[in-house]
Amino acid sequence: MNVITRAPDAAQATVPLRKRVQFMFLRRSAILLAAFTVALWPMTAAQAHDVLKSSSPAKDARVTDISEVTLEFNREVTFPKVAVVNAAGKLFQSGQADLRGKRVIQKLSGPLPAGTYTIVFGWSPPTATPAPVRFLSP
Fold it and tell me: Which residues form the signal peptide (predicted)?
């Protein structure tokens, strides 16, 4: 017995191939997009935070006469809050912090009694932060 098979026509043979190519393209695009997202995610998270570059007085400095503290960040900050606190929790800042580009300047309420002070900074009401700056007033 002879079996006669009919060859598929050209239009029918290319449709599945076209769909396979489209699927492969979409799958590869999705994989590349996911890879780029995973690779770039840490950079966007790191760039989202302002980093303190320097402070005046510097960390662990001993000062005798001081009327203001200055914090310099890696980029411009908005709505900064700065508190200068002694070991007993008393605040010594005066008024709002002055924003000058990447620098934040906080005036003090007057001469500081002898002791250890901490500069606490943030962008909400001043509370404890992971990296306060401490200085001593003899």
Answer: 1-48
Q: Is residue 71 located within the same domain as residue 122?
A: yes
Task: Give tens-digit pLDDT for 78-112.
Answer: 777 888 888 888 899 999 999 888 899 999 998 88
Neighbours of 108 (CB within 10 A): 17
Residue 33 located in a structural domain: yes
Residue 28's domain comprises 10-48
CA distance 16 to 21: 9
Report the alpha-carbon distance of residue 69 to residue 71 in Å, rounded: 7
In a domain, 3, yes or no: no
**Rounded Cα gap, residues 106 and 130, in angstroms:** 19
